[in-house]
Design brief:
3-stranded antiparallel β-sheet; 3 strands; alpha+beta
Length: 68
């Protein structure tokens, strides 16, 4: 697989066999992975909060029913 640099783009290479463009910027890939991980964690946190709120609502309903 031969690769050629793409003019005016330091981090891009072109595979001469498949004509594919390859991004050679490792730090950009690491930043993307960090952002993706942070987004997943945030989604998990929101899901956990939703579950906690639902549980609190159920407990409040039970308390109200006991006090009637």
């Amino acid at each position: 697989m031969n690769k050629l640099k793409i003019e005016n783009h330091e981090d891009l290479l072109r595979d001469t066999t498949s004509n594919a463009v390859i991004n050679n910027d490792v730090s950009a890939l690491e930043n993307y992975k960090k952002r993706r991980k942070a987004k997943r964690e945030m989604i998990n946190d929101v899901d956990n909060l939703k579950n906690d709120v639902q549980e609190i609502k159920e407990l409040l309903k039970q308390l109200l029913e006991k006090n009637r």
